[in-house]
Automatic annotation (TrEMBL):
Keyword line: Hydrolase, Protease, Signal
UniProt key word Nucleus: no
Gene3D superfamilies referenced in this protein's UniProt entry, alphabetically: 3.40.50.880
Domain of life: Bacteria
GO molecular function: glyoxalase III activity; peptidase activity
GO-annotated cellular components: cytoplasm
Pfam families per UniProt: ThiJ_like (PF17124)
Coiled-coil segments on the chain, per record: none
Keyword flag Lipid metabolism: no
GO biological-process terms attached to the record: methylglyoxal catabolic process to D-lactate via S-lactoyl-glutathione; proteolysis
Name used for this protein in its record: Putative intracellular protease/amidase
Species name: Rhizobium giardinii
Signal peptide: 1-22
């Protein structure tokens, strides 16, 4: 039923131009509304409004169908600090439009959210989906990076060369495909290091993620807390080839084979454009 409701939302909200070429896009979000920091501190978080809604709006307006999923199938949370016009180029009207469309999607509802679990996605069949997108916010660093269900999904997409897009902190989810993702992450959390990975499916891929420079500049958001590790360091150690914009917080997108990665919130629109190009 949840899957059918998700398809109905796509039809109702976006798709007057649906055609035979319409694609099915899976959007994977975190179940978590928090990120555990060092010293037992906690940062309330979720997905970033623009990183989800700018691509979602572009996909629906182009006639594509969307299914939302989280590892457990619980409703995701929006990071309240991301509801700010600065993430929409200073355009408050655009921000409010994204808020309104998010409300219509109903994915935040604890009772009636159309979000399904990754186990449900597996039951539907990975072949149903033409692309997958993982937006950022800090929440993916709590659960997506160690989700075995997500690891299986991404491995399937990798093996078939199917479009895999991720933005900001979202690319940390690529670690879920490691042979021992929990062990690798635990080593980073406790020692800020881990053994170099030689068998990662994305080893040698050019990619980007929210950079160490940007993490240092944005530390004030954590209100005195400190992250256990930065995603740039972890993805480099796993075997990725990291790239970043010359200017922090400027849009930067890297495309390598099936993988599309965006560095920060400002990259969400460019990720969406590349995703749409692939779906054509």
């Amino acid at each position: 039923m949840k899957f059918l409701r998700s398809l109905a939302i796509a039809l109702a909200l976006g798709a007057s131009t649906i055609s035979a070429q319409a694609g099915n896009v899976l959007i994977v979000l975190s179940d978590s509304d928090r990120l555990d920091l060092k010293d037992g501190k906690v940062f309330e978080t979720g997905f970033y409004l623009n990183e989800l809604m700018q691509p979602v709006q572009a996909l629906l307006d182009a006639g594509h169908e969307i299914t939302f999923a989280t590892p457990k199938g619980t409703a995701p949370s929006v990071d309240r600090t991301s509801i700010d016009k600065m993430y929409f180029g200073g355009d408050e009207a655009a921000m409010k439009a994204s808020e309104a469309r998010l409300a219509k999607l109903n994915i935040l509802s604890r009772e009636t959210s159309p979000v399904i679990s990754l186990a449900g996605v597996e039951q539907i069949g990975y072949d149903h989906f033409d692309a997958v997108y993982v937006p950022g916010g800090h929440a993916p660093m709590q659960d997506l990076l160690v989700s075995s269900e997500l690891g299986r999904l991404l491995t399937h997409f990798h093996e078939l060369g199917k479009t895999t897009a991720l933005a900001c902190h979202g690319p940390i989810a690529l670690l879920s495909t490691l042979a021992d993702a929990p062990g690798f992450v635990a080593a980073f959390e406790t020692q800020a290091t881990a053994k170099v990975q030689s068998d990662w499916i994305y080893a040698g891929y050019k990619l980007t993620v929210f950079s160490n420079r940007e993490e240092e500049m944005a530390k004030g958001l954590l209100k005195g807390g400190e992250m256990k590790f930065y995603p740039q360091d972890a993805l480099l150690k796993a075997g990725g080839e990291f790239s970043q914009a010359e200017v922090p917080f400027a849009s930067h997108v890297v495309v390598d084979r099936e993988l599309i990665t965006g560095q920060n919130p400002a990259s969400a629109l460019a990720v969406a454009q590349e995703l749409l190009r692939r779906l054509k």
